[in-house]
Amino acid sequence: MTAASPRTPAEIAELLAFYASAGVDDALEDTPINRFAEPTAKPAERRPAERAPAAPRREAAPESRTAPERAPERVENPPAPLSGLDASNIPDAPARAPAAAVPDEAQALLARQLAARATTLDELRQYMAAFDGCNLKFTAKNLVFADGNPNADLMLVGEAPGRDEDLEGLPFVGRSGRLLDRMLGAIGLDRTSAYIANVIPWRPPGNRTPTPHETEICRPFIERQIELVNPKVLVNLGGPSAKTLLNTTEGILRLRGNWRVHTTASGIAIPAMPTLHPAYLLRTPAHKKLAWRDFLEVKAKLRALG
Ligand code: URA
Predict the structure, then answer these.
(1) The CATH number of domain 103-305 is 1.10.3630.10
(2) pTM, to two decimals
(3) Is the minimum distance from the CB of 278 to ligand 1 under 6 angstroms?
(4) pLDDT over 70 at 16, yes or no
(5) How many angstroms is it from 277 CA to the middle of ligand 1?
(6) Torsion-angle region of residue 267: left (phi > 0), alpha (psi -120 to 50) or beta?
């Protein structure tokens, strides 16, 4: 602390109150830390809870609080606990892929191999929880896997969790989530009739934009998640989701409102509607009418597909 720093408990409380009212929600250190240069064992030591085979807080609940018309998913032979996961037992994988200390390409390769291996959503969640290849995991509190009904006809994919989502381990539970719920309600749906996930399952620190490397590393997981849910219709919430999953560089204002196709690794073509992100709509309420039109398109498509 500098000489001008507060010293008494009252001064410290005043400063903290100022930070909170200014929206500061992460305690960062004065000196930057190069986490890529840290010994690879450190992140695992820092986050023992992530190694536990049990799902993070409230993760199992959303998938079970559903009223599926199709049979609920069951894991007949759950994969062995993946504590200390490395690539050594995966054919053709890099010999070792320690936490965020090898080139991103090796981590992306490992992510692709793990994602391809998952035969159920539950397995996929376990592989992701054990995966140490994305540095975002080490600043996040929880893996934010999904919410809603995995048997739903509609799947929505956002960008990355924010603070509230990180705390709860569920996507879209903050302000933009409440708007999303109202948008779904407007077409007669809710979280028992839709499935919600993000391209990036860990909160980027300070809600910064995920880097292209982070997106590439996480991409196989969301692609496999879509393939396992196999929805009739996909909605991309915002530009990053649309660009990542629809293989385009066009901006969301041009993309939105037009049907595209998301093609899964096994070749299944899923109609996809890119639309405006609820967080953008909170900042730009005049554009809510555009999102409304997009959601009406989605409703009509779901009806047409029966
Ligand atoms: N924004 C997103 O893209 N995803 C969330 O889960 C929350 C906010």
Answers:
(1) no
(2) 0.71
(3) no
(4) no
(5) 9
(6) left
